[in-house]
Amino acid sequence: MQNYMKLVLEPLFFGGKDPRTIIFLVLLEAGKINPVDLISLLLLLMVANGAPVVTAFLLKDRFSGPLDGSLRLSDGHPLFGSSKTIRGIAAAILTTALIAPLFGFSLTTGALFGFWAMAGDLVSSFIKRRLSLPSGANVPGLDHIPEAFFPLCFLRSQMAIPWPNLAVILLAFALLDLFLWYLWGRLYPRFR
């Protein structure tokens, strides 16, 4: 019990200098979130962002033309990169629309949620290309925050999600997505 108390209370004395402070505060805030809402939103985010990956795995190179049509900007890099396809965008929007009613959302809300997830993904791809990073490169944070932040902001007004709760959901998604990205890469290195 003494070790547990030290683990829980010690971060409070070190303030922002100890990473445990952030974790402690996130867990404290997470206690205020309806667990059903948290799980529903995490699953919806995973569906929206996982649908393009699963579709690419199942269809291989079929219908895999790049969304940007291989357009290169003046910096010599693609607009988004070869891994962003019309097939992936369509898979995310359609799959999320079909799954959304299971979580109490309409087909339209699900489709828009999927759209905003892909808009966030395209923003991160655009930024990565400007940083000269190759298509498919994983950048923790940049690869996880926009694709969750955009759709959560879309749902924020409908569900009255407070900003601190949105931040907790965002962090939970980023950590879960990082873990699944690592696991997927270990199981299927070719599709990383």
UniProtKB/TrEMBL annotation:
Keywords linked to the UniProt accession: Membrane, Transmembrane, Transmembrane helix
Q: Which domain of life is it from?
A: Bacteria
Question: Do the record's keywords include DNA-binding?
Answer: no
Q: Which InterPro entries match?
A: CarS (IPR032690)
Q: Can you tell me where the transmembrane regions are?
A: 38-59, 89-116, 166-184
The identity of this protein, by name, is CDP-archaeol synthase
